[in-house]
Design goal:
This protein is an all-beta fold and 184 residues long. It is built from no helices and 18 strands.
Length: 184
């Protein structure tokens, strides 16, 4: 069991088909052509609808910028992630200029998936894949092992040991989330 890490700052952005922004795909797991979990950081440059992803559950959160109006509410940095069905393709309206956003997608037919704030420890019991995304960085402690995690980074582990996982952000209080997937 080892932890892999990828920083959004090290990933080349890919423009969206609709021209409304760009995405930095951090992970399409287990394979880019047939993913079950997809994690990305996106820059929204103009108003418009999200792309439709039938059969996919999505989580979205604003990392920086003034925020967006999405699903009938203003979403700002530091707010809880909002979850919605990928087939809904909601309209997104910038509040005041571009934003940088965190996105997670999971195919509903591909196991069980949870996203939860990393403000509390998690024990990956009966979990086949575990991820952590942090906006400001910190230290991931899994059992007796400590893994430094840079800002804007996704860390993940396949077949994690069922030992306590703690994220210590050094009192930065930046957004960070655990991502937990199991085959069922």
């Amino acid at each position: 069991m080892s932890w892999m890490r990828i920083c959004a700052d090290d990933v080349n952005p890919v423009p969206w088909r609709n021209g409304g922004g760009q995405t930095r795909e951090l992970l399409a797991w287990p394979h880019v052509a047939d993913w079950k979990v997809r994690v990305s950081v996106a820059d929204i440059d103009r108003n418009g609808a999200f792309s439709a992803f039938p059969g996919v559950d999505r989580w979205f959160g604003v990392l920086s910028g003034a925020g967006v109006d999405l699903l009938g509410a203003q979403r700002r940095p530091g707010d809880a992630l909002v979850q919605f069905a990928g087939e809904d393709a909601p309209h997104c309206q910038m509040i005041q200029g571009p934003t940088r956003d965190f996105n997670v997608m999971h195919r509903r037919s591909a196991g069980r998936f949870r996203v939860q704030p990393a403000e509390r420890p998690v024990i990956p019991h009966e979990v086949d894949w575990l991820g952590l995304f942090t906006d400001r960085g910190g230290l991931l402690i899994h059992g007796a092992r400590a893994v430094p995690v840079a800002p804007h980074t996704l860390a993940w582990c396949e077949a994690p040991a069922a030992q306590s996982c703690v994220f210590d952000d050094g009192d930065l209080h930046g957004p960070a989330w655990w991502l937990l997937w199991s085959a069922e």
